[in-house]
């Protein structure tokens, strides 16, 4: 609690949840007395969580509480590790349902941001909004040079309301983690922090403008998509002026006779490039944010919510898709686990068995055209939660993006094959990963890292010996533990030797690439490099096999 206003709002929120049958949660958090709440309605108890109408009641509660809670519900709809599938399905129906802001308030907002004479920048300005959402309202205008634009204008005082609600969400997450052990494992505080960061970025239209510029750089002269240009001189943190793109919704153009398969192909090309190539993707590609222009390109709108994947994590996603395409279920489980966040010891064998069982339902015997990658990911995330394993926020957002992409494409072209459309992107990523240039660059980086470690040994070793002599480091091992440690040490020495040989072979193979006098195997790669890298690959395979033995010891 930071202000008295927050306490008043907290009381209102608690009352709403109690009215919709969630009084047992408030009671469990021991908040009724602190907030001074009296409730005489029916308390359905914790069993209500599994009742058929729980999702509907939750949606009604969130909708009545306003934009912050609607958006939080939308985030929860991407977390099958937190909530059961029926509730997730209801949360996916959440939409902004807000009244229009009177133009007098819009005029005052424009005066604060663009100056008292803001109308001088425009030849005309439509006072009736094109659209009205929870954070901003959109108006069409024409600049003095005749350029058609739209202005996204933030609702007055919306920031203060959202910040108050976010404060309450932080507090509630703390209460929930204290009251329910499962909530602590799910890291509700961390989820709220991520949500607050995302919401803060949506409230700053400069961030959205930067996102749009980045998308434009990622799709220069694209035949598939167009992103509106922004007008920085007429944009602020609370007002965003951008190019007007004239387009129609997919349903309308399909009704006019446009081939849905071609639209779906363009849509997947754009979405997959964002996800698998750029690692910077639109976080909300629902039908209202994608229009089809007259020239056949897609118009991409509302870039406030975006997701990012670091190169290393993007490669993991490619590994997962590659495993799906090749029905390699063990690789799928292993890669999925490597992405996970764990806070308690995990029985990996049980985790792998669950992953394989889920994957079999979606992959084995299912035609490629019918495989739903997004739904598979969602089920894997839900299954991982049973083992106290959760995914990073950026991955859950990516899963949601894939589900939205597949859902929209299937709705307009049921026969579309998402896997086949993803194959060129995955093939390109895998090919680039193992290209001679990439391997050579990676080998040099590894060599630099190991040489740095080697240089630090002369300084670190004397310090370690001094600590041992001074008694600062002590060992207390019984015979049984000592024997296990000896075995583990032997394995580690063997692993170290094999790792050194593997690195040396990779470096040697990379160094001789391009030597004209050597016999060529294929694609300009000498036989000597192929042999060296093959031996290195076999050595790495033994390293992975022995890793589990060392971990268990």
Task: Jot down its keywords.
five-stranded antiparallel beta sheet, 15 strands, 21 helices, disordered C terminus, 553 residues, alpha+beta, globular
Descriptive account of the structure:
About 60% of the residues lie in helices and about 10% in strands. It is an alpha+beta fold and about 550 residues long. The protein has 4 domains: about 5-95 and about 160-200, no CATH class; about 100-155 and about 205-245, Phosphorylase Kinase, domain 1 (2-Layer Sandwich), CATH 3.30.200; about 250-435, no CATH class; about 435-550. The strands form 5 sheets. Strands 1, 2, 3, 4 and 6 form a 5-stranded antiparallel β-sheet that branches. The protein is globular, with a radius of gyration of 28 Å. About 30% of the residues are buried. Mean pLDDT is about 80; it is low at about 545-553.
Task: Briefly characterize the structure.
The chain is an alpha+beta fold.
- State the distance separating the first and last CA atoms: 48 Å
Unreliably modeled segments: 547-553
Helix run count = 21
Global shape: globular
The tally of domains stands at 4
**Overall pLDDT score:** 78
Radius of gyration: 28 Å
What is the structural class?
alpha+beta
The count of β-strands is 15
Instruction: Characterize the biggest β-sheet.
Output: 5 strands, antiparallel
Q: What is the helical fraction, as a range of percent? A: 55-70%
**Binned strand content:** 5-15%
